[in-house]
Specification:
The chain is α+β, with helices and mostly antiparallel strands. The chain has a single domain, classed as Dimeric alpha+beta barrel (Alpha-Beta Plaits, 2-Layer Sandwich), CATH 3.30.70. Helix content is about 35%, strand content about 35%. It is built from four helices and four strands; from the N terminus they run E-H-H-E-E-H-H-E. It has a four-stranded antiparallel sheet with strand order 2-3-1-4. The radius of gyration is 13 Å and the shape is globular.
C-alpha cells in the first residue's frame, strides 16, 4: 500500500462558509475512513488556511474521486488542492 497526502488550500472565509456543508463533508470522510483508505484528516489552525488528509491506498484515483464529491470543493471553499505520494519511514 502507498501513502498519500491530500492538501487543500482553503478560502479566507472557510470557517464562516463550511457549516451547512460540514455534515456531508464529514460523512464522505467517515466513509473513506471506514474503508481504511483515509487514515486521518483535519484543518490546520491559526490560520485556518489549509486542510490535510492522510491516505493509505494503492490507487490515488480514490483520492481524486473523494475531492470530486467533496461538498467543500464543489462549493468553492477549496482554492486549490494537491496530492503527493508520501514515503513513510516510521508509522
Amino acid at each position: 500500500m502507498n501513502h498519500y497526502v491530500l492538501i487543500y488550500d482553503l478560502v479566507d472565509d472557510y470557517l464562516e462558509r463550511r457549516e451547512p456543508l460540514r455534515p456531508e463533508h464529514l460523512a464522505l470522510a467517515r466513509k473513506a475512513s471506514d474503508s481504511g483508505e483515509l487514515l486521518m484528516a483535519g484543518a490546520l489552525a491559526d490560520p485556518y488556511d489549509m486542510a490535510v488528509f492522510v491516505w493509505r491506498c494503492e490507487d490515488p484515483e480514490i483520492i481524486d474521486r473523494f475531492v470530486a464529491h467533496d461538498p467543500y470543493q464543489r462549493a468553492g471553499l477549496v482554492k486549490s488542492f494537491r496530492v503527493r505520494k508520501w514515503n513513510v519511514v516510521i508509522s
